[in-house]
Amino acid sequence: MLLVGVNRSPYTRRVAITLKAYGMPFEQRALSGFADRAEVRTRNPLGRIPALVLDSGETLIDSGAIIDHLDETHGRNRALTPEAGADRRAVMKVAATMMGACDKALQAAYSRNHTPPEKQHQPWFDDCIAQAASALAAVDAMVNPNEPYLLLGRLTQADITAFVAERIARGLGVDTDTQMPKLRALTRKLMEEEPFRSTEP
Ligand SMILES: N[C@@H](CCC(=O)N[C@@H](CS)C(=O)NCC(=O)O)C(=O)O
Hints:
Layout: E1 2-4, H1 10-21, E2 27-29, H2 37-43, E3 51-53, E4 59-61, H3 63-74, H4 85-113, H5 122-140, H6 157-171, H7 176-179, H8 181-190, H9 194-197
Parallel strand pairs: 1-2
Antiparallel strand pairs: 1-3, 3-4
Helix pairs in contact: 1-3, 1-6, 4-5, 4-6, 5-6, 5-8, 6-8
Bound molecules: glutathione (GSH).
The site of glutathione has 12 residues, from α3.
């Protein structure tokens, strides 16, 4: 399999961590959604990363759809998102919250990086960051420091999505050490695990 995208992208890194957690071998083509637009569009007409090229030649796009396929291949009964019921709903809710936080953090980054200085609107940047921070604070409140993971006593997509969302928010200036200390402690712990450590950009 070929993963297309840079691990600076929280969506790409989420897929890379999942592939490693499942022990699935893959190669990676580190393309950026902006710097490598033309080549990215040959993989995904929308021009976004990640894309995953399967050994059959079929290409999947969007981290959620890619991970759904990886869960199916790995076996739904031992996937990082539980198969059904309350456990599945709980993991999917955190994952949706954290992917939304990534969306808002990136909107803030895009407004800063792709708008001429005289057209930048600080209140919009601040509002995007505040939404991302509010979502992270909600997940921080769920962390039980006596448990190794966020939910179910095992690694799930809740941890992976919280990890990538905390990372991007911190990079944009959110002081997660003081504002989300329990979540920050969890991400430090996760960094000791190979799938997280080895995907650090
Ligand atoms: N919902 C998508 C979001 C993917 C996404 O927005 N990727 C960014 C990189 S972090 C990108 O390629 N942006 C380029 C663009 O939107 O033009 C997913 O989960 O994969």
